[in-house]
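Structure ticket #2291
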Amino acid sequence: MGTTVYWMNVSVDGYIERTPGVHDGESWARLDDELHRELNARARDLSLSIEGRVIYDMMFPFWPDARNDPSQPEVMREFGHIWTDLPKVLVSNTRTTASHNTTIVGGDDVMGQLARIREETDGRIGVGGPNLATQMLEAGLIDELMLFVHPAVLGAGRPLFDRLDTPLQLDLFETATYGDGVVLKRYAVRGAAA
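Resolution: structure written out below.
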């Protein structure tokens, strides 16, 4: 069985976007080369990525294009190769096509489908997208949170999670600091289905 990991860049006050639906991380996130190399290493360690439609649409076509774009820094081109080559599951009820090693799942039993995918996958499974992560948390399908906390206070925006019906307990098991004050916090989720 795979280990599911919701990983995200987040502000100190728990937001991932200043304006919901607008990817504005460049204005507040501190993604220097050191942190980007760490993100690349963590992504390279994944066996599979499960992404919501909004995250997938944000990643595609930028990362497939970036991998061969000489104007992009080497760490960005490297991540472009990692993301493009990584097997992905897109959770969507509206998209019918996807490329670059991507399978689409959706419908009324999407959590059941994701539970089966988790059961059949060896290794670490990255999860991207707050809507999807919230649903998977409520279904007991997230094992770990890997949060890169940036030293910024956004004050409002898209939160890391949607409203949960029940509070979740976490156990901190790794911390690290990168570059310009970004702190990694890894938590195990108590009560995950594993």
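Closing remark: Strands lie at 3-11, 15-17, 46-52, 88-91, 102-105, 124-128, 144-150, 158-159, 170-178, 182-189.
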